[in-house]
C-alpha cells in the first residue's frame, strides 16, 4: 500500500458552490403554484470540476397534473432535459474518474 500525501488527502475532499434563485410561479387561476429554482455553480472533487446549471421544479400548491403540464411546457420551450443525478453523486463520480 502506498503512502498518501497531503495533496492526495486534499483531493479526496469535495465541495459544491452554487447560487440558487427561487421563483414562485402561479400555474393556474385555481391557486396552483410551483417553486422554480435555478442553481448555477461548480462541483469540485478529486482535483476535477463540473459546472452546475440546473432548474428544479417543485409543487407548492395544486395537483400533480398541474406540475407535470407546467414542467412539460417549459422543458419543450427551453430545450430542458430531466437529470436524475444528485450533486452528491456527481461529486462522487468526479472522485472516481
Account of the 3D structure:
With 97 residues, the chain is α+β, with helices and mostly antiparallel strands. It contains three helices and three strands. A three-stranded antiparallel sheet has the order 1-2-3. A hairpin with a 2-residue loop joins strand 2 and strand 3. The protein starts with 5 loop residues before the first helix and ends with a helix. The model has no long low-confidence stretch (mean pLDDT 87).
Tell me the fraction of residues in β-strands, as a range.
Answer: 35-45%
Sheet with most strands: strand arrangement: 1-2-3
Provide the structure class: alpha+beta
Low-confidence segments: none
Q: Based on the structure, what is the oligomeric state of the protein chains?
A: single chain
Number of strand elements: 3
Order of helices and strands: HEEEHH
What's a concise summary of this model?
This protein is an alpha+beta fold and 97 residues long.
Q: How is the secondary structure organized here?
A:
Layout: H1 6-12, E1 14-26, E2 33-45, E3 48-61, H2 64-78, H3 87-96
Antiparallel strand pairs: 1-2, 2-3
Q: Any key phrases for this structure?
A:
single chain, 97 residues, alpha+beta, 3 strands, elongated
